[in-house]
Amino acid sequence: MSVSVQIYKFSSPQVVNNESLLTRVLNRGYDLPRFKYNVITTPRIKNSLVEDLGVSPLQDSYVFFCIANDEPTEDKHIGCDEPLDDYEQTTEKLKLRYPHIAVNDVQRCYDNSVDETRSDLPLPKPLEDRLLSMAALKPHHTESGQAFEVTGFVSFYKGAGSLVIREAEQFAAKFLGASQIWVTAIKEHQLREMYEKWGYNFVEHIYVPLASNGEVDNSGSSLENDIGATRPFYLEVMMKSV
Question: Is 232 inside any structural domain?
């Protein structure tokens, strides 16, 4: 079995018109560390994709979907009605649906928001039954060349996470002139080792305190508003040259 990586700008109608669906997908993925480590108490997307992911401008931000191409071997569907399937249920169903996916066999597909010579590229329906991983890129402001930052990264299938990150890196380097890819992660979520395996280097820690109302004080970081937390925490900033 093979996979495709479908690439869109955030301004694409395929992204804009599926905001509630993508919100559900992202919150499902981010709920795994949220519940496991009990640092963050609010969902990843609280207000809107644009606001909470900080993707601005939309024309310069991109999203990558890793999609299973072949028909499933079992008729298992990812629940999107109450009660929703959680992260573990989703990964287990995808394993049953696609037990033998070769994530190194990749077909790249571009929406016309990315390449005007292409046609509109619909997202598969139902998306959650075929979505293995996704990641987004947004401009990162630095004085040392063109750079982008990874955001909105979730993976529900072994090997699909590293694949979608690699595809995003290669796209940024080849088509966007990027020389650096940045990542910011919550230190307490223990993601640094994973990113280091993918070639990212640690840059700095940023301390994130709590305000008097119990919400995160984001004045010293790039975090969005309205984040709830049980205690102060640290961000780990990492960078990879591409």
Answer: no
CA 229 vs CA 42, 172, 204, 211: distances in Å:
7, 33, 21, 10
What is the structure's pLDDT at 144? 75
Please state which of the ranges 5-9, 142-146, 218-222 shows the lowest mean pLDDT: 142-146
Q: Categorize the per-residue pLDDT at 235 as very low, low, confident or very high, splitting at 50, 70 and 90.
A: very high
pLDDT at 45 > cutoff 70: yes
Q: How many structural domains comprise the chain?
A: 1
Would you state the pLDDT for residue 75? 87
Is residue 98, in this structure, part of any structural domain at all?
Answer: yes
189 is a domain residue: no
Q: Please check whether residue 199 lies inside any domain of the structure.
A: no
Domain limits at 139? 3-178
CA-nearest of 127, 66, 75, 70 to 96 is: 75
Contact indicator for 131, 32 with CB cutoff of 8 Å: no
